[in-house]
Amino acid sequence: MYDLTGKQILVTGASKGIGKAIARQLLKQGASVGLHYNSSPQGVQELVGEFGPERAIPLQADLEDNQQTTALFRNALKKLPNLESVVLNAGIFPPHPISDSLDSWLKIWQKTMRVNLESAGILTKLFLEHFQKNDQGRLIYIGSRAAVRGETEEYLAYAASKGGLSSLAKSVARSFGKYNIKAFVIAPGFIRTEMAMEAISKIGEDKVVDELALNRLTTPEDIAPIVALLCSGELDHATGTTIDINAGSHIR
Ligand SMILES: NC(=O)c1ccc[n+]([C@@H]2O[C@H](COP(=O)([O-])OP(=O)(O)OC[C@H]3O[C@@H](n4cnc5c(N)ncnc54)[C@H](OP(=O)(O)O)[C@@H]3O)[C@@H](O)[C@H]2O)c1
Question: 191 in ligand 1 pocket by Cβ < 6 Å?
Fold first, then answer.
């Protein structure tokens, strides 16, 4: 296990699922972690209880609201002035089949884009300016297998938002490497979290597992160690890369 003592890291969407497992792993490895949440403070409070308020720092913001997203950047730096890695994990996965009226289809499209992509764009712009001054920084985007192989028709906005996130990360890696700023994408397949369980139970868990090369559904704890390794700096020369964590369901 890499020692992350002294490292300051922000994780968005740290209140449950993948983000919470990532935050717990980083805290276990010694880092100080900004624990962003929106509507679920209890998940973050659990981590504060486990690791103490010195290193586990709650930060609230609704990332659908651009002003709150900007405030998150400022508040994170107030609490973590030597912040060097940001894990952009918060996201939503709402269905909007094309049989919906255009109005309701578009509402979901816009909400998905705001939460999954626009907030990540704003945080990217603000952290790039900050990291440029410090001549160091690392942005880790939680993308999706959907960006690579596409999604089913109810999740067009979701797939498009993750495709955008992926292109954003690659552009950051290409354009800012000379400032010692690195960018990575983690592309999970189905992971056992609240977000995915509705879709998984519609398909049937046995069928989902049949489509994997491995014999069980991936959990958030299967994602967390890779993110900790990225935050350690040991993989910096893989900047621009996308790491697939999908239990062999989409090998490329
Ligand atoms: N689970 C999967 O199968 C899977 C597969 C591929 C990619 N991913 C990606 O992995 C990431 C985490 O997903 P998950 O499965 O862990 O989901 P989850 O359990 O539903 O957690 C989502 C997190 O995002 C936060 N969030 C949602 N809407 C927000 C908003 N408006 N403002 C701020 N924060 C908001 C939630 O905060 P609150 O609860 O505090 O509101 C929560 O912490 C997402 O980007 C997702 O697209 C997941």
Answer: yes
Q: Which two tokens stand for residue 127?
A: 């952290």
Q: What's the 43 CA to ligand 1 centre distance in angstroms? A: 13
Whose CA is closest to atom 39 on ligand 1? Answer: 40
pLDDT tens column, 31-65: 999 999 999 999 999 999 999 999 999 999 999 99
Report the nearest atom of ligand 1 relative to the CA of 61: 33
Task: Assess whether the C-beta atom of 58 lies below 6 angstroms from ligand 1.
Answer: no
Say yes or no to pLDDT of 1 above 80.
Answer: no
92 lines ligand 1 (CB under 6 A): yes
What DSSP element (H or E) covers 101?
none
Closest by alpha carbon to 185, among 220, 248, 140, 146? 140
The CATH architecture that domain 8-245 belongs to is: 3-Layer(aba) Sandwich (3.40)
Give per-residue pLDDT as tens, 171-194.
999 999 999 999 999 999 999 999
Question: What is the pTM assigned to this prediction?
Answer: 0.98
Handedness of CA 34, 85, 109, 195 (dihedral sign): negative
Domain ranges (residues) in the chain: 8-245
